[in-house]
Amino acid sequence: MQYHLNGFKPGNYQIPDSAREPAAIPPMVDLPNEVDVLIVGCGPAGLTMARQLSEFSDITTCIADLESGPLMFGRADGISCRTIEIMEAFNSSEMIVKEAYRLMQNTFWEPDSENPENIKRTHKISDARIGLSEFTHSIVNQARLHELLLEGMKNSVTHLVPHYSRRLVELDVDPAVTQDLNAHPITATFERCDDPQTPKTETVRARFVVGCDGARSTVRKSLSIALEGDSANKAWGVMDLLFVTDFPDIRVKSFIQSKEHGAVMTIPREGGYLVRFYVELGLLGKDQRASDLNLDAEDVIAKAQQIMHPYTLEVKEVAWWSIYEVGQRIAERFDDTPVDNPDDLIPRAFVAGDACHTHSPKGGWGLNTSLPDTFNLGWKVASVLKGTSHPKLLQTYSTERRKVAFQLIEADRQLSKLVATRPTSDNNAPEAKTNTADIEKFMARQNGFVAGTSIEYNPSYICTGEEHQHLASGFMIGQRFHSAEAIRVADGARQHLGHLNKADGRWRLFIFGNQQIPVDTTSAAHQLIQFLATSDDSPVRKYTPEGMDHDSIIDVYAVFQQQDLSITDLPEFLWPAKGKYGLRDYEKVFHADEGNDIFEQRSIDRLSGCVVIVRPDQHIASILPLTAHDELAEFFDEFMLA
Ligand SMILES: Cc1cc2nc3c(=O)[nH]c(=O)nc-3n(C[C@H](O)[C@H](O)[C@H](O)COP(=O)(O)OP(=O)(O)OC[C@H]3O[C@@H](n4cnc5c(N)ncnc54)[C@H](O)[C@@H]3O)c2cc1C
């Protein structure tokens, strides 16, 4: 798809440039007095939290932002493979795949040794992330991703819409009632900022609050959560440009190092014409802000033109630009409980996204770490509010996501060392030069982290069973379920199994059969299915409320090696009667595809088979033998409530 030929226009790219209008701002509606969950901030973290909660009709959610309407321009644009997998869980991946620029190659440019004032391409390589996911790392306006989340919220059962022009000014958490789940310990005070002449204050009480209010988070400050690490110390010129150039690699991501003028990174954008430029402006002095540099877009363009010599850059339109200052910082805790939580308290207030970790834009990790933060938290809060999980589950958010934030800061430090840093006049730091070969090596080494696909949660009661990892070594416990295809028995359709893991709060069991024929009642797969269907210890029976479909809490799928199967020969549990008419669900049984065999691709033990337990956020919770009925029951008994 091509757009922005005659100028950048935000909005829904499905509508042609000439007709596209920015999304309308929702009308002002008073904030509710009391909700289950209050979300502060409509960035990727806040919207993902809201999108997740919007799926539950029995949870009341309020999301508010100080801006007057949805984001339209700028900020992050790199959408990692893992972020697109998450968007698929919200049924919104197709639009990104269709609209975004798909990153296939990188080029590296350095000073020409024969003519050092000119740059020269040293090499061009395939992007190291290709093949780590069924999706490709993509580049698209962050605002477009927001729009997809907003659309999903609006079309959900709760029709959730943000409240704009609301600035959070104060947040109180009443310590006397934080351990009473039914209480509303949070009191948030907002100031309306739509009409400065008539300021109005509104108060919301909530059972939980999630601070997704960015790097200068008021929620974080109200909870007295300290930030550890360097404060803002680097400034970046960031620009989205429409221009004419003779630089040959303008439609490929390029790392460009000049001899005298520093470095620039160019990233082609969606639509075929737009390009993002990152120009490193150097270190800021202590207490110096990027605004103190007094630079404007023309200065940043001039710098890019110098770096790209002898190629020309004739700018026609600056769609968006910013001087973006960042430090590498991480919050000492991600919730309102004390560090290490010695009293095992239930958290009631959380911080997520930039509110608890900030770093440079070099790796494109800001959005791609913020959005999975709340993808981790959303289902946990929902299941506690719905009464299906013990509230201790909420403590795992901080432990799981802080580990990722530390990895992020470390990766950013490594990458920062590899990209040129030029001293400012008031800073005597030694000048370092970009070594593009080292960047290439870094990207190859860290490809799983950069793609988000190798993020792994430490062992806990919701990430367990390492002793059985060998039964499916391609499904790493703690990491996300790495999708692969199988053939649906009922209709022969090819299905990406990972796409069955929707963001609907359900757990999933994938039973991978062994070499015994599953219709044989003595086979291990058949016996496991019988256990799940009939035993009093079955987690499916124990935790599914009376009168609900039996897959409404734990959704079970089976994948067999045998191709010649008829669905009606299998236990009815695998083609269950559901809904008000008792219609049969024929979409739970698959067989491996010859030549594209999931057993081979994910190294699943063909002799033993196994069962893979997948969390509502698509991470693998455990792998068990088909015969481990007791362990399967114990796994869910650890945190689920009947
Ligand atoms: C100007 C800018 C440029 C950036 N450029 C890049 C880039 O080039 N590349 C890159 O990878 N990343 C970039 N980022 C970072 C990236 O956008 C973030 O990492 C990502 O958006 C973080 O998501 P988030 O939801 O945690 O926070 P944000 O996206 O920062 O969202 C926070 C939201 O909270 C709202 N808010 C803040 N305070 C309050 C309050 N008191 N009351 C109510 N609402 C409040 C804000 O209006 C905002 O909408 C940029 C960020 C900024 C701010």
Q: Can you offer a commentary on this structure?
A:
The protein is an alpha+beta fold. A seven-stranded mixed beta sheet has the order 6-5-13-14-15-12-16, with helices on one face. It has a seven-stranded mixed beta sheet with strand order 21-20-26-23-22-27-28. Strands 1, 2, 8, 9, 10 and 18 form a six-stranded mixed beta sheet that branches. Strand 20 and strand 21 form a beta hairpin. The model is unreliable at 421-432 (pLDDT under 50). Flavin-adenine dinucleotide binds next to helix 1, strand 8, strand 16 and helix 7.
Broad shape = globular
CATH class of the domain at 34-69 and 162-230 and 329-408: Alpha Beta
Low-confidence stretches: 421-432
Indicate the multimeric state.
single chain
Kindly report the average pLDDT value: 92
Rounded to an integer, what's the Rg over CA atoms?
A: 26 Å
Helix count from the secondary structure assignment: 14
Secondary structure tally: strands: 28
Helix content: 10-25%
CATH homologous superfamily annotation of the domain at 34-69 and 162-230 and 329-408? FAD/NAD(P)-binding domain
> Might you state the CATH topology name of the domain at 34-69 and 162-230 and 329-408?
FAD/NAD(P)-binding domain
Ions and ligands: flavin-adenine dinucleotide
| Computed structural class | alpha+beta
Largest sheet: number of strands, sense, barrel closure:
7 strands, mixed
CATH architecture of the domain at 34-69 and 162-230 and 329-408: 3-Layer(bba) Sandwich
